[in-house]
Write a structure and sequence with these properties.
75% of the residues lie in helices and 0% in strands. With 315 residues, the chain is mostly helical. The chain has one domain (89-314): MetI-like (MetI-like fold, Orthogonal Bundle), CATH 1.10.3720. The longest helix has 36 residues, at 88-123.
Length: 315
């Protein structure tokens, strides 16, 4: 029952987001038909603009456009791009795996660095390692991702020539180059997520380690490693998982600068181009897919949270 409630809330959220996006992008100043016909600074004839508006269905009422749009969404059709008449679904799902891969690698790097370092810093609270790790985490948070990305390109691509400066090569074409091109953008994204996981893990472990059940486990003679892994880390991971879910959702829409710095052809670049061109179907398709992924990610993390803390399932 708890799972069904979560799924129901998730579906309602997706519908609300899709409706808000549909209405918001149509309030942006500018006529898509006129913009499409004004390429190169040429002023289009009013009759030609009206004819294109009729072809694209932009002369219909907002309600008719909304109804037709959602009928298409329910059948899995995201429409066609206003700029090149290509399938929105085809372009979105061609780029989506690239952005998801980037975020997945960044999340893996963040988890493998932030959580272990946060645990070690908490266990050595006040020591030199704790102070050094806290300083590095604060420094990493204070530097914007585009600066981190630019520095990585300068050092590893220009000075050391160890990694390519950017671009994208399909894995099946050249696996080694593919991994090399994903590595720096993923590390750049991780530079903003890993310090957050570090700080949350450190604070959560410090809080849990002083609780009664931990002292009881120690009094019973449980080995230090067993105390840390079974009694401390398991409970400390609950808030860490929540923070990770929220930040991963944010990263879905926040990779624009990183993809731009590394010339990475992901979903964010497609969204920026669509906004500039007033390409309503493309904007709505990209935002809808990102929203569905965000909601699905949070739903997954809710289920994981329920496994870690059974009290959540009774809420």
């Amino acid at each position: 029952m708890w799972v069904l409630r979560r799924i129901g809330v998730a579906l309602v959220l997706v519908w609300i987001v899709a409706s808000v996006v549909f209405l918001a992008i149509r309030l942006v100043p500018g006529d898509p038909a006129e913009i499409m016909l004004s390429q190169g600074g040429v002023s289009p004839d009013a009759a030609v603009v009206a004819e294109l508006r009729d072809q694209l269905g932009l002369d219909r009422s907002i309600w008719d456009q909304y109804r037709a749009n959602f009928q298409g969404l329910l059948s899995g059709d995201l429409g066609v791009s206003l700029t090149d008449q290509a399938s929105v679904s085809g372009q979105v799902f061609a780029r989506l795996p690239r952005t998801l891969e980037l975020i997945a690698v960044a999340a893996l790097v963040s988890v493998l660095t932030g959580i272990p370092l946060g645990l070690l810093a908490a266990l050595r609270r006040g020591g030199w390692f704790d102070r050094l790790a806290m300083g590095l985490a604060g420094l990493s948070l204070s530097v914007p991702v585009f600066v981190v990305g630019t520095l990585l390109v300068l050092v590893f691509a220009q000075w050391l020539a160890l990694l390519p400066a950017g671009g994208f090569t399909p894995f099946r074409t050249d696996p080694t180059r593919h991994v090399a091109q994903v590595l720096m953008p993923a590390i750049t994204i991780a530079s903003s997520l890993a310090p957050v996981l570090f700080g949350m893990t450190r604070a959560a472990v410090i809080d849990v380690i002083t609780r009664d059940h931990v002292r009881t486990a120690r009094a019973k003679g449980v080995a230090p490693a067993g105390v840390v892994l079974r009694h401390v880390l398991r409970n400390a991971l609950i808030p860490v998982v929540t923070v990770l879910a929220l930040h991963l959702g944010t990263l879905l829409g926040g990779t624009v600068l990183v993809e731009y710095v590394f010339n990475y052809p992901g979903l964010s670049g497609l969204l920026v181009d669509a906004v500039n061109a007033r390409d309503y179907p493309m904007v709505q398709g990209v935002v809808l897919v990102i929203s569905v992924l965000f909601v699905a990610l949070n739903l997954t993390m809710d289920l994981v949270y329920g496994v870690l803390d059974p009290r959540v399932r009774r809420a």
